[in-house]
Amino acid sequence: MSLTIDELVMPDALDAPGGDDFAEYATLSNDVERHTLGTDLLAMGLHEMLSEYVSTASRTRRHLVARHGDVMVGRAMITTRPLTPEAGAYLMVDVTPARRRRGIGTALLAAAEALAVELGAPVLKVAVAHSVRDGGERVEPPTGFGDLPADDPGVRFLRAHGYALEQVTRISLLDADRLRDLAAAGVPDDYRLLTWAGPTLDQWIDELAALRTRMSTDAPSAGMVMLPDPWDAGRVHEHDERIASSSRTMLTAAVEHVPSGVLAGFTEIVVSEGGAVAVQEDTLVLTDHRGRRLGMLLKRVNAEQLVATFPSVEAVVTWNAEENRPMLDVNEQMGFREIGREAGWQKHVL
Questions:
Q1: What is the 3-state secondary structure (H, E, C) of 51-96?
Q2: Which residues have a Cβ under 8 Å from the Cβ of 18 and sit 6 or more positions away?
Q3: Taking the chain (350 residues) in consecutive chunks of 10 residues, what is each chunk's mean pLDDT?
Q4: Residue whose C-alpha is closest to residue 46's, from 68, 78, 21, 63
Q5: What is the number of helices (H) and of strands (E) in the chain?
Q6: Closest CA to 31 of 131, 104, 98, 111
Q7: Helices 294-309 and 325-334, packing angle to 10 deg
Q8: Helices 233-245 & 46-53 angle (0-180, nearest 10)
Q9: Computed over its alpha carbons, how large is the radius of gyration of the chain?
Q10: How far is CA 333 from CA 182, 186, 271, 296, 327, in A?
Q11: What CA–CA distance (Å, rounded) separates 161 from 175?
Q12: What is the DSSP letter of 99?
């Protein structure tokens, strides 16, 4: 039976035309991640995955599916940024474990790469989860921080297709028992804490847009090609509305530098309705305000907000570059433990 690769058109809703195909696509993605990490803690619900996988004004996403007959055996996602096309494209390729080593991944990757190049991407990037195992031959990024098993299927596949490992990211989890024991420290002089649940408060939208833009340049990116990713009030509104429309709640803690009226830092946690695991999203403290333990303060305050708002949540999961030692120090002091690794791979094509 021959392999076919076609583009998947995203449905307007799960019960709209194409919804069944998307559900199969999303289930395959979750199954692959579960197989890689050995846990379903990071599995996304269909509504939230649909929300994240659609295109927006600042992000274009195209989707490919591979089938043997009527059975979906692989999928690929190609993400580009219309505002910064020179930053390249992010690719994701998944093949159901039972169908690997049959050329499906190679065919899907070739199709995804061709589409990305057609869209004008000068560099192709991959962020993918890898297994965590000690011993054996290791592969290290140029940063010297973190490593991966050389025999990991994803590692072997990407190296064979010309991708270079640039960065290793730690996936960490904070259990409920440790989460409920956290307590925030005092707020330094000249600073004021702010917290809210749901969409960004109107008075802070412009400030938060500025922080999100800085996040794209201040977060460690190793050798990955990264460019400033501009945010404005409209993009913040769109992001917040998309989160809320997918039955998720965003919890934000921010700190204002009172003399200047500027937000010096923020952190966000997203919780799915009825979900057991919350996702720690961006955390940033501006360079001029570092050294005051504001990062720790923000994370602890938001943890308190999480426990108070969603007492049934069992854990929080987060991602941090291995070279981001200041933030890893904060997480380790809070009690986060490693559950997996994600790596950034890159290949220049133009």
A1: HHHCCECCEEEEEEEEEECCEEEEEEEEEECCCCHHHCEEEEEEEC
A2: 8, 9, 10, 11
A3: 91 94 96 89 90 94 96 97 94 93 95 96 95 86 95 94 97 87 80 96 96 92 92 96 95 97 96 92 93 91 92 94 93 92 95
A4: 21
A5: 9, 14
A6: 98
A7: 40
A8: 160
A9: 20
A10: 10, 17, 23, 9, 10
A11: 38
A12: G
- Could you tell me the CATH superfamily of domain 3-170? Gcn5-related N-acetyltransferase (GNAT) (3.40.630.30)
CA–CA distance, 292 with 252 (Å, rounded to integer): 19
In angstroms, the CA 20 to CA 319 distance is 31
CB of 170 closer than 8 Å to CB of 338: yes
The domain ranges of the chain are 3-170, 174-341
Q: Which residue has the tokens 């308190």?
A: 304
For residue 60, which amino acid is it?
T
Task: Give pLDDT, residue 184.
Answer: 66
Q: How distant, in Å, are the alpha carbons of 32, 70, 223, 301, 307 from that of 274?
A: 23, 33, 38, 22, 14
What is the distance between the alpha carbons of residues 65 and 73, in angstroms, rounded to a whole number? 8
What count of residues does the chain have? Answer: 350
- CATH class, domain 174-341, is alpha beta
3-state secondary structure 320-337: EECCCHHHHHHHHHHCCE
CA separation for the pair 129, 176 (Å, rounded): 24
Count of C-beta atoms within a 10 Å radius of residue 179 = 20
Q: What is the 3-state secondary structure (H, E, C) of 236-292?
A: HHHHHHHHHHCCEEEEEEEEEECCCCEEEEEEEEEEECCCCEEEEEEEEECHHHCCC
Domains 3-170 and 174-341 in one fold: yes
Give me 207's structure tokens. Answer: 């400030």
